[in-house]
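User: I'm new to structure prediction. If I give you an amino acid sequence, what do you actually give back? Let's try with this one:
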Amino acid sequence: QVRPVESGGGLVESGGSLKLSCRVSQSIVGFEQMAWYRRAPGKERERVATVKSDGETKYAYSVEGRFTISRDNTENMVYLQMNSLSPRDTAVYYCNAPVAEYIVQLPWGQGTQVTVSS
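Assistant: Good question. You get back a string of structure tokens that encode the predicted 3D arrangement of the chain. For your 118 residues, that looks like this:
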């Protein structure tokens, strides 16, 4: 399996926006769920947003109302639109295909760094 390739991160001021992209070099049609995760310095990796194959989405409480996840099955892409960013959102962001709480179907990619300045 090929690792997902995440991009779109960068340095942004508090209150700003970023849109992350994840390219998967295989069809994602068969993945019931695609998700974005993040790992902040000194913390465990956490799942922040999930999109199912039927378009249903779910968000962590910390990002609800600010982040929007979407998927494009024809392009094998997953996106994360992040608005109203705060320094607490600073982390490396990854995408993957979860099948359970702590089980994913793809190797972890390099991730993309998001840094929010105050």
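You can read the tokens as a compact description of the fold. Here is one thing that stands out. The chain is about 0% helix and 50% strand.
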